[in-house]
Each structure stands twice: as C-alpha cells, then as structure tokens.
Amino acid sequence: MLKRISGIFLLALAVVLAVHTVVEPLYHSSSEAQPYSPLWNVLNPLMVLGLALGLVYSYDRKRQVDLESDSGPVTREFLVANIQFFGFLFVSVLMLWNWFDLLSPAFAAIGADTTSLVWIVIDATLPLLSGSMAMFLLRSKTTG
To answer: What are the strands, taking DSSP E only, across the chain?
Structure first.
C-alpha cells in the first residue's frame, strides 16, 4: 500500500512539475526582485520529498537487481535500475545545492545565471525520474 501511495505522489509530482515548468513563463513576469514564481516555494519541499522517496525506492530496486544478476549479462532491468538510482542521486545533489543557495543569500560563489541554469536541469529531469519511478511502483505486484 505504501508503494502505491508513493507512486501516486511521485506521478502527481511529475505532472505538476512538468506542467509548471512549461507554463511558468506564460503567467509569471520575472524581475530582479522576484525572478521565480512564488509557487516554487511550495514545490521545492515537495520536490525534496519526491527525491527522498525516489532515492529509497530506486536504491531498493537497484539492490534487488544487483542480488539477482550477480555478474551476468547487462539486462534492461539492470540499466533502468542503475539509471534511476544514479539519476535521483545526481538530481538530489543539484537540488539541495541550489535550494540551499536560494535559502542562503550570503552564499555568493555562483551567479544568478548559473543558479537558473541548474534549476532548469532539475525541473526538466525530476519529472522524468519521478514519472518512471511512479509507473514502476504502481505496476509493482509486491506490497510494502
């Protein structure tokens, strides 16, 4: 049941992030004082929760594949499990680094252009990872 609830959350997160990333330029006028839509203040903590869930479930999936395959041929499941896990890991590092930069105005090691570019990478990648993990969890036969 927990996998199903997590899958629904990750799917909803993927859809909301993808839609908001695409439509934000249509309704929000960026300024120096307000470069991003205020909706990101709500979405960012949800993104961190989605990344935590994604890391837990992708690590579990990777661990299961590693136990089953030992050192045999590379299978589709092996590739998918590893791409999901390391993808979630990569986006988690970027997300937390960028989010903490946003929360700490004293941090000036990077410029606004770099921060914006990293947000675009996160906002384009996380819906793909979350959506694929959601589909795996929703199609999973096991409970937990």
So the answer is: none
Angle at 1 between CA 64 and CA 60, to 5 degrees: 15
Which of 9, 37, 11, 14 minimizes the C-alpha distance to 91? 14
Q: Are 59 and 92 in contact (CB under 8 A)?
A: no
Q: Is the pTM of this model over 0.70?
A: yes
Contact status, residue 62 vs residue 82, Cβ threshold 8 Å: yes
- What is the Cα–Cα distance from 48 to 27, expressed in whole angstroms? 25
Q: Residue written as tokens 């049941």?
A: 1
Look up residue 129 and give its DSSP letter: H
Does residue 68 carry a pLDDT above 80?
Answer: yes
- What is the spatial distance between Cα 136 and Cα 64, in angstroms, rounded to a whole number? 14
- Judged against a pLDDT cut of 90, whether residue 31 lies above it is answered with no
Instruction: Give 127's pLDDT tier (boundaries 50, 70, 90).
Output: very high
